[in-house]
Specification:
By secondary structure, this protein is α+β, with helices and mostly antiparallel strands. It is built from 5 helices and 5 strands; from the N terminus they run E-E-E-E-H-E-H-H-H-H.
Length: 180
């Protein structure tokens, strides 16, 4: 019986989440499975992946073939790395302790990278929110200024009107002098 590690779709329309399962390759996509290995939720940023590492490695060592998407998920979580290291133990190149040390060191580096990504996403979100707030304040201040003219602005147009009234009179006087 050929076994595949693949995704089984759950959730509602437009909001899928997946179970990662070991299933007979002849079974339907959402049909019978042999063992549930974990979950994958692509709706969050970064995607949420919770998977049982030991059971996944066991299935891979027993010959289960992951689908393309499942392979990417297993690689992302380090399961393929652990399988590779366990194959080294079987050949005598490594010990169990060395495998655990290497795997845990890789997990720590991966956790730091994920935390950095989360922090960057949060800071970008905060910056965008701050810029939107500044833009909104500027628009509100412009609206308030347009709705409530200050006393200085009221006096300025009155002076401008007086200047425009005096200007035609002065022009008329100059024109009269030139005619004489």
């Amino acid at each position: 019986m050929p076994v595949r590690i693949r995704l089984q779709r759950h959730g509602k329309k437009g909001k899928p989440f997946y179970w990662i399962v070991a299933a007979d390759s002849r079974a339907k996509r959402d049909g019978k499975y042999l063992e549930k290995l974990g979950i994958y939720n692509p709706n969050t940023n970064p995607a949420t992946i919770d998977i049982n590492v030991d059971n996944s490695v066991k299935w891979l060592q027993n010959g289960a073939q992951p689908s393309d998407t499942a392979r990417a998920i297993l690689s992302y979580k380090g399961i393929l790395l652990k399988k590779h290291l366990m194959d080294g133990v079987a050949k005598g190149a490594l010990t169990e302790k060395q495998v655990e040390e290497k795997y845990n060191a890789w997990l720590e580096e991966k956790a730091k990278a994920i935390d950095n990504k989360k922090n960057k996403l949060q800071s970008d979100k905060d910056k965008a929110k701050e810029e939107a707030l500044k833009a909104e304040k500027a628009v509100n201040e412009a609206r308030i200024a347009a709705a409530n003219p200050t006393p200085e602005e009221e006096e300025a147009p009155a002076d401008a009107e007086a200047a425009t009234e005096e200007a035609p009179a002065a022009v008329a006087e100059e024109a009269a002098k030139e005619e004489e």
